[in-house]
Amino acid sequence: MSADKRLFLLDGHALVYRAHYAFIARPLINSKGWNTSAITGFVRTLVDLIKNQKPTHLAVSFDLPGGTFRDDWYPAYKANRDAQPEDISFALPWIQKILKAWKIPILTLERYEADDVIGTVAKKAEKQGYKVFMVTPDKDYGQLVSPNIFMYKPGRQGNEVEIWGEKEVCENWDIEHVDQVVDLLGLQGDAVDNIPGIPGVGPKTAATLLKEFGSVENLIANVDKVKGKNQDKVREFADQALLSKKLARIDTDAPVEFDEKDFNLDPFDRDQLAEIFKELEFRTLAAQILGETSPQPPPKKGESTNIKTAKGSGTQGNLFGEEEPAAPFRQAAPPIPAHSMAEKNIANTPHQYHLTDTAEKRAELIRQLSKHSSICFDTETTGIDANVAELVGMSFAVAPGEAWYVPVPADQGEARRIVHEFKSIFENEKTGKTGQNIKYDAILLKWYGVEVKGTWFDTMVAHYLIEPELRHGMDYLAETYLNYQPVPIETLIGKKGINQLNMRDIPVERVAEYAAEDADITLQLRHYFAPKLKEEGLLELYETMEEPLTKVLVDMEYEGINLDGDFLRKYSVELEKEIADLDQKIQRDAGVRFNIASPSQVGDVLFGRMKIPYRWGKTKTGKYSTDEAKLTELAAEYPFVADIMQHRGLSKLKSTYVD
């Protein structure tokens, strides 16, 4: 069989439902109020599959509305299901638009389910030499698995992808061969699909009966040999068991063809996808899938192409622990990508940005700032930790479209002197201050001997109050509310990694445009959000809770937390002894030396050597999974497993929190 012929068939509805409920606790809502959770999750699964599995052929099958042939046999089939959630009904047309733009075939068939379409195509493709992967979380597909047909279960909540062959299906269903999947469903039923089975017969009883009798038909034929109450149940519900088996069997002779050229993974329509992603506000996915075509900017005349790099990114962290997606390295003010939500950028928007790099210019700027009751400011630094970063420059704005950038030298004495020139502005209680994550700037300036006083308006915090479920980074806010795409930081310092520069490595003229734009855009965001806070009845909450709290956090983070070092050192010694004693106990009970920190070796000892029953799918590398959820489930029954979990917990406590 050619290893190049790899067909992936996606169970569309099952994956959409799975994606929707994965985000149910915190749905992804864009600025239009659309719940894009299911769309995002589905596309991420698709991207991950294409990137990591590299299929040669691919298709997605969806159920059609209306009944199927199974309803003719049993009108109550799936009648217990709730109505489809509105958010999924909204998502499905968008997902199908994306698939069409991606040139991925969509398979549907009147009066047949997606299971039947996928089953039929899988069997036909297998005959043509394909290795087929059915992408679905639905275990019922196990009945279709063969030496060349597999179940591909996407990972969830950090778990790895599971690929089930015949061995894994039999282990998970506790059966002898995959044909018995339908027999098991015939006996135990399926509550999800409202397949009745035999009342009172669960998975364990069904598996036990199949081990003795092999099939539903043989069980019924030999009902006299069935022991106890189960004999009465089988006699009474024999016809229902046969019907249930019939309902559970996937039809592999549906009227659908497999023409391999129709399933080729062809290049997608970039323009169509860009338009769809723009409408959905999929910034990160758009950048990941569509990328950028703009070249890396060449060095300016006189600039070295062999710049010594520094590790700090020079960008500020997000107050809410979110990481804004990194834009590709590109020219300052490149053409706006088709998928961008913004139509404006620094190249097509009038502005006046001033480099304020002399004492005379700074003095004039200070005179101008002192005339205003409120100013907006931002800092450029060498790192994301305000307690260790050095100041590279400060930018100021008082009106939209105009801003000033004040560079600060590396010499800390001279830097401190320049910052102190602006002390009268920063420490004026009557002058309001606006910033994006102003807490960072205030902490940094405290290290230069300057307090930021007066009222604070933090655009990041304001947006969090208005739209808590959305992202709060400045680039996102500018694109969403100002229709403006700021110059990406990566344009200056490059992508994250060992070759990334910091702001001090960049010529000051380039930094000035970037930094001044930050202050200008932040001011414009303040003009947008301040009325919104009032309209939403959130202004009092901001002024009485969020603003004072931000100032308290500045003092706390600046002062730090005093730890008892002697206590921690002594506790570390105690933990080390406790871990060593537990290690000896575990090794003694196991009867073999192994590395308790190795998930692979733990799996081999638990499920290979000690024969603890393993009822889950293995990892894609064929190893036993020993994640916390599985070990927690086993720990209540097996003290040895509980010891391993305690060892893991103590080791984590020592290495991460004590040492």
What is the structural class? alpha/beta
**Shape verdict:** globular
Helix content range of the residues, please? 40-55%
Strand percentage, roughly? 5-15%
CA-CA gap between termini: 54 Å
Main beta sheet strand tally, sense and closure: 6 strands, mixed
CATH class of the largest domain: Alpha Beta
Mean pLDDT: 88
Give the total of beta strands.
Answer: 14
Q: Would you write up a description of this structure?
A:
With 659 residues, the chain is α/β, with parallel strands linked by helices. The chain folds into three domains: 257 residues, 5'-nuclease (Rossmann fold), CATH 3.40.50; 218 residues, Ribonuclease H-like superfamily/Ribonuclease H (Nucleotidyltransferase, domain 5); 94 residues, Taq DNA Polymerase, Chain T, domain 4 (Up-down Bundle). Helix content is 46%, strand content 10%. It has 26 helices and 14 strands. The strands form three sheets. A six-stranded mixed beta sheet has the order 3-2-1-4-5-6. The protein has a six-stranded mixed beta sheet with strand order 8-11-10-9-12-13, with helices on both faces. Helix 17 links the parallel strand 12 and strand 13. Helix 1 crosses helix 2, helix 18 runs parallel beside helix 21 and helix 25 packs across helix 26. The longest helix has 28 residues. It is globular. The relative contact order is 0.08. About 6% of the residues have low confidence.
Outline the fold blueprint.
Blueprint: E1 6-11, H1 12-22, H2 37-53, E2 57-61, H3 69-73, H4 86-101, E3 106-107, H5 114-127, E4 131-135, E5 149-153, E6 162-164, H6 166-173, H7 180-188, H8 203-213, H9 216-221, H10 229-236, H11 238-248, H12 270-280, H13 283-290, E7 344-345, E8 352-355, H14 359-370, E9 374-381, E10 391-399, E11 402-407, H15 412-421, H16 423-426, E12 432-435, H17 438-446, E13 456-458, H18 459-466, H19 474-482, E14 484-485, H20 489-493, H21 508-535, H22 539-559, H23 565-590, H24 599-609, H25 628-635, H26 639-658
Helix pairs in contact: 1-2, 1-4, 2-4, 4-12, 7-8, 7-11, 12-13, 17-22, 18-21, 19-21, 23-26, 25-26
